[in-house]
Specification:
Rossmann fold; 9 helices; 5-stranded parallel β-sheet; 4pyrrol_synth_uPrphyn_synth; 6-stranded mixed β-sheet; 244 residues; single chain
Length: 244
């Protein structure tokens, strides 16, 4: 159909230029290059773990007791993991899929993973459907989204939030014109658009609905959303779009 025709510069005879707002594995960059898709990496946010005595004490107490624990970011998992010191906590873990799930299984054991969601909202819905969940510990950053804790509290589940990392905006002015831009979080979206605008023809790729919704507050450009919360899935979506 006419509305799916791509601009001439997307032709198989031309190289495609993509900006990723988060680091990508070398294998993904090489796979893109093989398709004449060239990806520049510019990070628009940074994260720093909170390593205070209060956090150490709080996590230490939680390690000594059974708990229902929620992770919706790999940064939260990576920040909490060093505190376990070889212990195997009696935790039931609820998390989003792909990288966050893989890290949680690596550090806390596959047996600890109880419910996995495609995104924070989907995870909350699945947890609410499990009538046995009454109270959870939510390890998160200081800019965490409201979807999960809000839904859980509205459905009578007590949420203890433990903020374990800071998210820092690192805006950059981008002068290069890109055919597409990959966004992996609402925070990165806000940081990018703080210093930049995009041409109407630029295709924007979002990892999940919350990131896509953040993009919509800044532009009416075409947004392609990945169904699964993984960097690889978003890159594959981009491959599929430009090589149709």
């Amino acid at each position: 159909m006419a509305d799916r025709l791509l601009p001439i510069r997307y032709s198989m005879l031309n190289k495609i230029s993509i900006l990723s707002t988060r680091p990508l594995e070398t294998a993904l960059l090489e796979a893109a290059k093989a398709k004449d898709i060239y990806i520049d990496i510019i990070s628009f946010i940074d994260t720093t773990p909170i390593q205070t005595s209060g956090i150490k004490e709080e996590i230490g107490k939680l390690l000594q007791q059974p708990a229902s624990v929620v992770f919706t970011s790999m940064n939260a998992v990576s920040t909490v993991a060093p505190y376990i010191n070889g212990q195997t906590p009696d935790w039931n873990i609820f998390c989003i899929g792909n990288t966050t799930r893989q890290l949680a299984a690596r550090y806390f054991g596959e047996q600890s993973i109880h419910i996995v969601g495609n995104n924070a909202s989907d995870l909350a819905d699945k947890m609410i459907s499990n009538k046995g969940i009454k109270q959870v510990v939510f390890f998160c950053g200081d800019q965490r989204r409201e979807e999960l804790p809000g839904k859980l509290r509205q459905n009578g589940i007590t949420v203890q939030e433990v903020i374990v990392y800071h998210t820092i905006s690192t805006p950059h002015k981008v002068d290069k014109v890109y055919d597409g831009i990959l966004f992996f979080s609402p925070s990165a979206v806000q940081s990018f658009f703080y210093a930049n605008a995009v041409l109407p023809s630029t295709i924007l790729f979002a990892i999940g609905q919350t990131t896509a919704d953040a993009i919509k507050t800044f532009t009416d450009n075409t947004i392609i959303e990945s169904e699964r919360p993984g960097k690889e899935d978003l890159v594959k979506k981009m491959f599929e779009f430009f090589k149709k």
